[in-house]
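Weekly modeling sync, notes
Attendees: S.R. (lead), two postdocs, one rotation student

Agenda item 3: backlog of single-chain predictions. S.R. asked that every request posted to the team notebook include the full sequence so nobody has to chase files. The rotation student volunteered to paste the first one in as an example of the format we agreed on. Action items at the bottom.

Example entry:
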Amino acid sequence: MLDEERRELDMYKRALACVAADFADLPRESAGARAGEMLRADVALIDEQSGLQSGYDGAAREGTARRRVARAALRECLKRFAETARTIARQRPGFAERYPSSSGSNDERLLADARSVAAALDADRAEFTALGVADEYIDATNAKVEAFGAAVAQTGASRGGRGAAVSARTNAFETAENHFATLDTYIKNRYFNDPARLAAWRIASHVERAPRRKRTTARKK
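Predicted structure, as returned to the notebook:
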């Protein structure tokens, strides 16, 4: 959440607390009371979506770290198969085409190539083991492909969820601004002759300014 949004949200919460403490006599069916209830719902939604965004951010960071490790392991695996396949291709022209190295590919292409290689290995296992590639290494290929695929899916889902949470929070801020404007106008009009309560309202409904940066002065030589 941006600092500006956080200050705005804090103001809404102070305003609602002020309504509960100093304006309990708001007519229940009035526009002011209805706006206050809708503002309360907006604030709850903002808090909820902010929490979801934080969760998605954490999941995305975790997924990105897993993705980096899985990508490196998979690229090394494909590189080994590609180099071995080029040697086999000296006797079997065209063999190497089934084993791209994908060293410079994006993640989607890397995953597609890796799945293709894993499928080709079922038929070509003997060719690779004859040149010293262990069966265990070949068997581990599918696990590396699945690990990378899971990491790609996790980061994709986290980014999508984060985007949805940010969008919902942005919409909630927009509606909160409208509901607050109605509540603010109603209170100022209904209680125009009650300076004490209006003073409390002005304090509560004031958005704090961002802290100013200290000026730095150049040292004299």
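Discussion: group reviewed the output briefly. Confidence is low (pLDDT under 50) at residues 217-221.
Action items: rotation student to repeat for the remaining queue; S.R. to check formatting next week.
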